[in-house]
Design goal:
This protein is mainly α and 107 residues long. The chain has helices at residues 14-49, 54-69, 90-97; strands at 72-73, 81-82.
Amino acid sequence: MSKNNAIDLDNLNVDELRAISENAQQLIAKKQHQRLYDAYMQFEQIAEDSNATIEEILKAGEKLEKKRSIKYRNTANKEETWTGRGRKPTWLVEALAAGRDLEDFAI
């Protein structure tokens, strides 16, 4: 907000301050809705340009995110993986206890 448009809130009464607050909340909600609508329209255009549906893109994204989030893989069993979050899987705990380094399993 520029200094020319600044409101001296100290000189307003409680009702005026509440009105400003309510108007601000309504404007925030409107702008958030518009931002999401604009994003959705861009997403729809991307889907159209890709000759796909939004649902197909989201489903593909879930698969990609799952693959991307894997940070460690069991060298003895490629099916066993870990994202690096949460509790370490048994195969990793056992390998670390046997003297292996975490980086041995990094992807």
